[in-house]
Give the backbone structure.
Amino acid sequence: MLRSMGQRRVTGDGEDPRVMELRAAVSRLRRELAGHPVEFVDRGIAEDELAAMDAMAVGGVPEVRRLRRSLLLVAGSVGSVSALAAGLTAVRRAVELFGEPPRV
């Protein structure tokens, strides 16, 4: 589809590719977090926010402000775990596909 007049390109099955990218990145980080052998204090926060991000994506195009808030919470929770850095970067890049939240 055309991007003119605020339209977004969609895949052949009608799904927004940004949403697909977000779901893939979130799924990857959730798997990496589940397989990470070391417990850390904020692991539960990261797991909850990743689940929330996935739920937002399942519902269609997520609210950018809420998505960025979840990203900050996940980054704050797992940011010091170097083994999760690549997965976290992929989630950040996927969130950035949605652009900046509208200014109020």
In short: The chain is about 60% helix and 0% strand.
